[in-house]
Amino acid sequence: MLKLGEFFPNFLANTTIGPIQLYDWMEKSWCMLLSYHSDFDAVCTSELASLVKLHDQFRKRNVKLMAISCDSLSSHTRWISDILECSLSKDKYLPFPIVADENCDLLLEELNLLTPNLETTHVTYLIDPTKRIRLSTTYPPNVGRKFREMLKVIDALQDISIVPPA
To answer: Which end of the chain has the lower number of beta carbons within 10 A, N or C?
Structure first.
């Protein structure tokens, strides 16, 4: 697993909004990257539905959201309908991309977010504008993440990060 303070690896991936090179897509923003083993799991769907509802709060903090799952773009497209329905959103689109990692190459090898036997965990990385990891969390797949708490952590990290070095 990647460690705090390390540079998060840049990657190129197909997503629900087209191909993305992470660093280019982030620009000068923060990024919260959430990993999932597969689509349509009830916990995963409810988590992403929560993020739809809180998207404006993350945007106010200059945090871009991105999910990654070991399923195809066509699966993600069907999943997005469930996510939006669960979120009760009137929007017809998901306000953040989902990376398609069908062979789990990105999750398993480049980002080291899965074990070799594909045991699932839900990992969250918060990456700052310099592309360094500022937060990492790991949850068992049956436990949902609390994104209001993540917002508090982001507020604390961003307050620290704006203090000029001595």
So the answer is: C
Domain containing 66 equals: 6-158
63 beta partners = 30
Q: How confident is the model at residue 25 (pLDDT cuts 50, 70, 90)?
A: very high
Decide if 166 is inside a domain: no
Determine the average pLDDT of the residues in 114-128. Answer: 73
Q: Which of 3-12, 36-45, 138-147 has the highest mean pLDDT?
A: 3-12
Cα(31)–Cα(44) distance, integer angstroms: 18
CA distance 115 to 122: 12
- CB of 48 closer than 8 Å to CB of 55: no
Measured distance CA(128)–CA(157) in Å, rounded: 9
The helix or strand, by DSSP H or E, that contains position 122, with its residue range, turns out to be strand 122-127
Distance CA 65, CA 60 (A): 12
Residue 137's Cβ-count burial label (10 Å; 0-12, 13-18, 19+) is: middle
Catalytic residue numbers read 44
CATH number where 149 lies: 3.40.30.10
